[in-house]
C-alpha cells in the first residue's frame, strides 16, 4: 500500500510531467489555433451544451492554481475558473480547453492531437500510479480535491 507522503510525491512528480506535456501540446497545436471571441461561451456548460471531461491529472493541474473551485452563483453552469470572458488559470487549463475552438477550421487536426495527448496523460497517470478517472468538470474537480487531500 502506498503511504500518503509517497502518494503526494507521486502526484507532484506527475504534475511536473503534465507541465512539460502541456508545453509540447501547445507547440503542436500552434499551427491550428483559431481566433477566440473571448466571450467565455465555451466555458459555460449545462443543458444542450458540450460537456468538458477531465482526467484526474487535468483536474489536479487546475486545482494546483489554488483558485476557488465553486462556480459563481450568478453563473452556476460556468466553469469556476472563468474570469470575465477569459480563463483565469490559462497555464493550468485542461486538454479540452486547449484543443476546442468555436471555429471549426482545423477541427479534425485538433481532434487527432487531443486524442494523442489524452493517451499520453493516461500514460503519465499509469507511470506515477496516481488515481485515474474521466469525469465531467464539476465532478472531476470535487473528486480530485478529495483524492489530493487523502
Ligand atoms: S479552465 Fe479555463 S478554458 Fe477551461 S473551461 Fe475553465 S475557464 Fe474555460
Give structural notes.
This protein has 150 residues and is mainly alpha-helical. The chain has one domain. Helix content is 49%, strand content 7%. The chain is built from five helices and four strands. The strands form two sheets. Strands 1-4 form a two-stranded antiparallel ribbon. It has a two-stranded antiparallel ribbon with strand order 2-3. Strand 2 and strand 3 form a beta hairpin. Helix 1 packs across helix 2 and helix 2 packs across helix 5. The longest helix has 26 residues. The radius of gyration is 15 Å and the shape is globular. The two termini are 14 Å apart. The mean pLDDT is 93. The structure holds iron/sulfur cluster. The site of iron/sulfur cluster has 10 residues, from loops.
Which helices and strands, and how do they pair?
Layout: H1 4-29, E1 53-55, H2 56-63, E2 82-83, E3 86-87, H3 95-99, H4 107-128, E4 134-136, H5 137-149
Antiparallel strand pairs: 1-4, 2-3
Helix pairs in contact: 1-2, 1-4, 2-5
Bound molecules: iron/sulfur cluster.
Number of helical segments?
Answer: 5
Percentage of β-strand residues: 5-15%
Biggest sheet, strands in spatial order? 1-4
Distance between the termini: 14 Å
Q: Percentage of helical residues?
A: 40-55%
Using brief descriptors, characterize the structure shown.
mainly alpha; two-stranded antiparallel sheet; 150 residues; 5 helices; two-stranded antiparallel ribbon; 4 strands; binds iron/sulfur cluster
Amino acid at each position: 500500500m502506498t503511504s500518503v507522503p509517497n502518494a503526494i510525491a507521486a502526484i507532484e512528480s506527475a504534475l511536473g510531467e503534465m507541465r512539460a506535456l502541456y508545453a509540447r501540446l501547445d507547440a503542436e497545436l500552434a499551427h491550428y489555433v483559431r481566433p477566440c471571441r473571448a466571450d467565455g461561451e465555451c466555458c459555460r456548460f449545462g443543458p444542450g451544451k458540450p460537456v468538458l471531461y477531465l482526467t484526474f491529472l487535468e483536474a489536479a493541474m487546475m486545482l494546483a492554481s489554488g483558485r476557488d473551485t465553486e462556480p459563481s452563483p450568478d453563473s452556476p453552469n460556468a466553469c469556476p475558473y472563468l474570469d470575465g470572458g477569459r480563463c483565469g488559470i490559462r497555464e493550468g487549463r485542461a486538454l479540452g480547453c486547449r484543443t476546442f475552438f468555436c471555429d471549426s477550421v482545423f477541427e479534425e487536426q485538433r481532434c487527432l492531437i487531443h486524442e494523442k495527448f489524452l493517451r499520453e496523460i493516461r500514460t503519465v497517470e499509469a507511470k506515477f500510479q496516481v488515481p485515474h478517472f474521466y469525469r465531467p468538470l464539476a465532478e472531476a474537480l470535487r473528486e480530485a480535491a478529495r483524492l489530493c487531500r487523502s
